[in-house]
Amino acid sequence: MMIAIVLVVLLLTGLPIYVCLGLTSLIFFLYYEIPLDLLVRTLYSGVDQYALISVTGFLLVGTLFDKAGITEALVTMVRRFMASFKAGLAVITIISCAIFAAVSGSGPATVATIGGIMIPAMIRARYTPRFAGAVSASGGALGILIPPSNPFLIYGIIANQSIAALFAAGVVPGILMAIALAFTSMILLRFFPNYTTQGAQETRVYQPLTFREALAAIWEAKWALLAILMLLGGIYAGFFTPIEAAEVTIFYSLVVGFFITHTMKLKDLYQALADALKLSGTLIILVATAFVFARLLTIQGLPQALGQKIGELSEDPHVILLVIMAFMIFVGTWAETFSQIIVLTPIFLPIITRLGIHPIHFGVLFVVCAEIGFLTPPFGANLFVAMKLANISLEEVSKASLPFILTYTLVLVVLVFFPELSLFLPRLIFGRV
Q1: Cis bond leading into 173, ω under 30°?
Q2: Torsion angle of C-alpha atoms 398, 404, 410, 416, degrees rounded to 10
Q3: pTM, 2 dp
Q4: What pLDDT, in 10s, does the model give residues 17-39?
Q5: What are the CA-CA distances from residue 154 to residues 244, 304, 378 (Å)?
Q6: How confident is the model at residue 202 (pLDDT cuts 50, 70, 90)?
Q7: What residues does each domain of the chain span?
Q8: Is 220 exposed, middle or buried (0-12, 13-18, 19+ CB in 10 A)?
Q9: Are 146 and 101 in contact (CB under 8 A)?
């Protein structure tokens, strides 16, 4: 209990999360007279992991895709194809977010890219700005569930699980979530027109697409589609490990950007490297201090004690898992995604393993909880991006996001009770996981 109190007090001071974790660990290592050389060895072993290379790799891939024009080409193709369906722009936005998630790995980045295009279009089509913002924010959260996913990378490292299997596990839940969000939008537009649109009917954008035009749109986005095929197809087919796939895709992005599209300059490469290094450096420090904090908790037997207390709530693993998910959603309203994964995984992983819950399945549930955190104030990163794009207040976009938060929660419950939705594809591709 004292460890938790000290950590919370330090967090309330506004210190960076890695400082809070490291300082808390140091205080109690000294208090319990634990040899400090163990702290140093744990710091080193925490970052001495080959899989951490993939974190930097995928962060750099996302930046280079933008600089090389791959992201823009993909968004243009998606817009053209989606305009050929007689569906509302809300549905088009969510589907576009799901497709763009295959090259993003980030929720806020998906909102910024797709929302930057679709929010103005939705407002012109007589959507209310608050609903347009909510649709983009909720669709953008798919960016961390549909692979490649940066949170899956971190979870895989902390939980010592296959990153490729985690990527595969996110596909079916991601598609299911996208369909559920699309249906939610359709229901809201059908039964709550005064809340969702500025008038009885939305102005729909419909542009029939001929076969020749479809081929032309695909051809224009060929480098983007090839990047996705190489990145994910290479991993699932067994040609690359996730680390190798990231490095190959980096080289591919450089070739496309410098020699094919000619959109990338040396200053762009420098900026991409600088951005990736800043973020990956922060994450590596977080991982190191999290390993020390986890070692402290293990020495004190806190995960075991917490597992015993939670186990007393019910004999049904599903009930216990729902309690853990509720706690994670609550934490997600206050904490950043990577911090949640780094701090909570060592605490809950022994508990769910003892309950017979597969760590890969738990990782998917964890990421869905993080998606909900993107949509809940005061931290909700997606909400802040959407409110700026829609030029509305945080309160307005938060209220409009409530139906989508409910959808995320309902799908989370379905995933809790039907783990094969997460585990089916990894077992099909990789055999026993």
Answers
A1: no
A2: -80
A3: 0.81
A4: 788 888 998 999 998 888 888 88
A5: 17, 23, 23
A6: low
A7: 44-430
A8: middle
A9: yes
